[in-house]
Amino acid sequence: MGEIFSPGKLMLTSEYFAMDGALVLAVPTKLGQEFSFEEKDDERSLIFWEAYHQNKLWLKAVIDYKNWQILETNILSNAEFILKTLKNVQLLSTIKFKDNFTYHLKTNLQFPADYGLGSSSTLMTNLAEWSEIDPFYLNKISLGGSGYDIAVAKEKSAVLYQSVPEIKYEKVNFDPSFKNELIFIHLNQKQDSREGINFYKSKTKSQKLVDEFSDLTRNILVCNELEKFSQLMLIHEQKISNFLEISTVKAKYFTNCPVFVKSLGAWGGDFVMSSKFDGFEDYFWGKGFRTIFNWNEIIN
C-alpha cells in the first residue's frame, strides 16, 4: 500500500480577482488530506473507494471502471462526482485504469469539511501525483477555479500564483516577523465558493483593478510591520467590498473590533484573519466564534 499527502491552504490575497490574473499569496496549512492506494491484478476492473473525514467513514463506493457504473454507494451524488473525476484520471493517465486491476483507494480529510481549507484541491493533487498527470488540468476539467490551491498543495509551500494569461507560480518564504500576533477565526459555516465565483464573474471589472490587487499582494509579501500589514489588509478588504457591493466581514460581524478583520477566500464563510488585542478571545467567543487558531497552530 502506498500513501500520499497534500496540505490544505489559506488564500491571503486577491480572492475572486485571482480568476482574472491578479497575483495571489497563499499559504499551506498543517492539516490536509491523506491518500492511500492498493492495486491488485485480479481481472475485476473495480474501484473500491472510501473517503474518511477525520478518520470517520463518510463516503464509500464501488465503481466498475470498464463501464463506468456505480455498483454500490451510500451517497449517490458524491459518488457520481468521484466517478467523473476518476474517469478524467483515466483519460489523462497512461498508467491508471488501463488494465483490469482492482484499485482500493482511501482518502482521509484531516480537517472538518466546513473549514474550507481545500478538500477538493488536495484530492485533485493527490490523484494527479498517484496517476502521474497534470494536477492543474485535472482540476480544470473536474472542478474549475483559478488553481492557486493546487499550487499550494503540490509545492507544500507558500506561493505567489497567477492564472492569467497562463498559470505561473513560485514558492516563497512568507514568514512575517509579527506572525505570532496573527490569528485565524472560523465563521462557523462553509461558503460555497462556486456561487461566489459566479457572482463575481457577472460583474464588469477593469485590468487596472486587477493590477491593484497584484500590487497589494507584492506589498503584503514584503511587509515587516504589523501596523502597515493591517493597513494593507483594510485597503484590500474595502476594495473588494466596493467592487462586489457587499459589506465587509468586519462590518457584518465585528463592527467594534479594534483591529483589522480580513476574509480569506470566498466571502461569507470559512476563515477570517485578524490580530491579537487585549481580550481578543473573550471578544470573539462572545460573538459566537470559538474556533481560533494562532499562526503556528494552523500554518505549515
Characterization of the model:
Keywords: Kinase, Transferase. GO terms for molecular function: kinase activity. This is GYDIA family GHMP kinase. InterPro entries: GHMP_GYDIA-like, Ribosomal_Su5_D2-typ_SF, Ribsml_uS5_D2-typ_fold_subgr. The protein is an alpha+beta fold. Helices cover 35% and strands 27% of the residues. It contains 10 helices and 12 strands. The longest helix is centred in the C-terminal third of the chain and has 19 residues.
What value does the Rg take, in angstroms? 20 Å
Structural class comes to alpha+beta
Poorly predicted parts: none
**What average pLDDT do the residues reach?**
93
What is the H-and-E element order? Answer: EEEEEHEHHHEEEHHHHEEHEH
- How many β-strand stretches? 12
Instruction: Classify the beta-strand content into a percent band.
Output: 25-35%
User: What composes the largest sheet?
Assistant: 8 strands, mixed
**Assembly type of the shown chains?**
single chain
Overall body shape: globular
Terminal Cα span: 26 Å
Features:
300 residues, alpha+beta, four-stranded antiparallel sheet, Ribsml_uS5_D2-typ_fold_subgr, kinase activity, transferase, GYDIA family GHMP kinase
What is the fold's blueprint, element by element?
Layout: E1 2-11, E2 24-40, E3 46-53, E4 56-64, E5 69-73, H1 76-92, E6 102-109, H2 119-131, H3 135-142, H4 148-155, E7 159-162, E8 168-171, E9 182-186, H5 193-201, H6 207-222, H7 226-244, H8 249-253, E10 261-263, E11 271-275, H9 280-286, E12 292-294, H10 295-298
Parallel strand pairs: 3-6
Antiparallel strand pairs: 1-2, 2-6, 2-7, 3-4, 4-5, 7-8, 9-11, 9-12, 10-11
